[in-house]
Write a structure and sequence with these properties.
The complex is a heterotetramer, with two copies of chain A and two copies of chain B. By secondary structure, chain A is an alpha+beta fold. Chain A contains four helices and six strands; from the N terminus they run H-E-E-H-E-H-E-H-E-E. In chain A, strands 1-2 form a two-stranded antiparallel ribbon. Chain B is globular. A six-stranded antiparallel beta sheet of chain B has the order 2-1-4-5-6-7. The chains are: A alpha+beta, B alpha+beta. Chains B and C meet through loops of B and helix 2 and helix 3 of C. Strand 4 of chain A pairs parallel with strand 3 of chain B. The structure holds adenosine-5'-triphosphate (2 copies) and magnesium ion (2 copies).
């Protein structure tokens, strides 16, 4: 279990470094052990350096930067141990145009081995998703589903 | 294993029988505010055996049963059925297709079944444990979870790495 | 002070009922006293009925509905006691197309007596705002302001 | 009273001298993630005498001083000046225009001034009290405040009505 943690940590750490730089289009980030000599009890810290900026404490990050950084961490975990289904509820809301494009590309790549359901109001995400599931209230207060784009129709 | 089909009746705003299939890839769920997108997600979470009504934005269990609209009467129960493809045997059950069903009546009676065999809530939770779904997994992510991922203590973060081990 | 609270409460309650119906394009909502016989210590509750729906506990509301409802409450307070400056940081992010239009209209109306600074990624809000202030990082890590639309240019 | 002009130097990402005026109406602040929009708001809040560094997303007071970028060295202090039109006499000071300035050096020295007269932080806070700005007012609203407005207890909500009295 000590080795198990170390192996998992190393894999997730490497994944995180890759995903962070990919999603931000630059910069670098690390997971680090708070207590490397005490692997059984150590915590895990995050240190980030955004493109063109210096290392900053996490709290100073912007709303969108925090959201994208957390997504990089989520992807890092999923790359190591995929969940069969991942539901995202409007996590792209704080992202700007460029960041949401990179986020959508990552979703598409990971969707080869993970089913994603992503609730979104964002036009970029909607355009990138192969399948659309519309939810409406024709009758007030009653939800109905409206399949809007099927997986085999490759038209935008 | 993969979640392949979802059937919903009487859960929150899904007053009528509702079904859809999941064919892999990215499904974007869209619609105006309050139309039922997060409710759809709540239904899946509830079907998986979610025990905490706070995670379902409810204050009592029966809050998840459709309580009516201006032109529609309430219904007497909520029911969600989830179908899993278990060809790869990830779920600890000898079946290539697994249906999990959960029902709750207004009177407060709960019923659970796996492939039509009546069972208890803990059987559903145990079936799903270690599948990456349900509370142990990181399967449902909203703005709160995103904020938590960074605001969490170093110890909590280590816990997530342990869960991915 | 007892009368002061009662007068303020009544005014804010009336404002809230009006603003809620305006922002949601229907429905109704009320502020109510938890303890009407004990005005000095009473709390204030919110009860809402969204268009076409029945009364629901607040927790069951959607992300966008909660955001718009809270905005109605904010506007109700501001109508009674305007603050000279109100800064909104991406509060329109969870709103859909129709709701954000009504929200932007309310902002414009209230801006006759309140200076609003609204940080936004939303195209509807951006199109509706008479003045745009762009913030960029030409040099990485260093912010500069770029005035993009001045108050007297009425062109979109 | 109205806030009419803002001058910023060395505050968070505003490494260079920055100025802008406010002419009333709705100003939409736009730009990519991390470019400094919320930092601009933090500067105004800080200039008004905000005491809690948590509200500025900082863990120590000096966190608000520009700490450098890959191609730019850090600066030695942060300074924000706010100009108010006080024609209507809302601010309890005998002046039709009021400049409030706050400065913090890396060494930890704080300076405050009102119309170029050196003063203490509490003088700035008292000047602003009851203007609807500063912590007592509801002048700065983000997603957290929105969530709180509804999640708050009935007692807290009554408190906001008291403040609007
Ligand atoms: N048991 C119930 N009976 C009837 N209506 C319900 C019930 N539970 C929740 N609702 C209604 O469901 C609506 C919220 O739906 P939901 O959270 O799915 O919206 P959404 O599509 O996610 O919207 P948003 O884009 O704003 O997040 C609320 O209007 C709420 O009143
Ligand atoms: N003292 C400082 N020195 C240098 N950079 C800083 C300092 N304080 C904060 N920053 C940087 O400012 C950035 C955050 O800026 P800000 O919160 O204003 O972004 P934003 O424009 O609001 O973005 P978003 O749209 O994502 O909310 C972070 O990258 C952070 O590292
Ligand atoms: Mg929702
Ligand atoms: Mg921001």
């Amino acid at each position: 279990t000590r080795d198990k943690f170390v192996n998992t940590f190393n894999a997730v750490r490497d994944n995180f470094a890759v995903m962070f730089t990919r999603l931000f289009g630059g910069g670098s980030a690390e997971l680090s052990l708070t207590d490397p000599d005490n692997v059984l009890e150590t915590g895990v810290d995050i240190v980030v350096q955004l493109p063109g900026k210096k290392r900053q404490p996490l709290q100073l990050l912007s709303g969108g930067e925090r959201s994208l950084c957390a997504s990089a961490f989520l992807f890092a975990l999923l790359k190591h141990k995929p969940a069969p289904l991942v539901v995202l509820d409007e996590v792209d809301a704080p992202l700007d145009g460029r960041n949401v494009e990179r986020f959508a590309e990552a979703l598409l790549e990971f969707s080869e081995f993970i089913q994603f359901i992503t609730i979104t109001h964002n036009h970029t995400t909607i355009a990138a998703a192969p399948t659309l599931l519309g939810v409406t209230m024709q009758e007030p207060g009653v939800s109905t589903l409206v399949p809007m784009r099927l997986p085999d129709s490759v038209s935008g | 294993m993969r979640l392949t089909r979802v059937k919903i009746f009487g859960f929150k705003t899904f007053a009528d029988r509702t079904e859809f299939s999941l064919e892999g890839g990215v499904v974007a769920v869209v619609g105006p505010n309050g139309c039922g997108k997060s409710n759809l997600v709540d239904a899946i979470l509830w079907g998986l055996g979610e025990g905490s009504i706070k995670h379902l934005r409810a204050s009592s269990s029966q809050d998840v049963i459709f309580s009516g609209a201006q032109a529609r009467k309430q219904v007497g129960y909520a029911e969600v059925s989830l179908c899993f493809d278990n060809e790869d045997g990830t779920l600890p059950i000898d079946a290539s297709e697994v249906w999990v069903t959960r029902r709750l009546t207004r009177a407060g009676d709960s019923e659970y079944s796996i492939n039509r065999q009546s069972c208890r809530l803990r059987d559903v939770v145990e079936l799903m444990a270690d599948s990456g779904l349900g509370r142990a997994g990181y399967a449902i992510v909203g703005q709160k979870e995103i904020d938590q991922a960074l605001a969490a203590s170093a110890e909590d973060r280590r816990g997530w790495i342990d869960e991915a081990a």
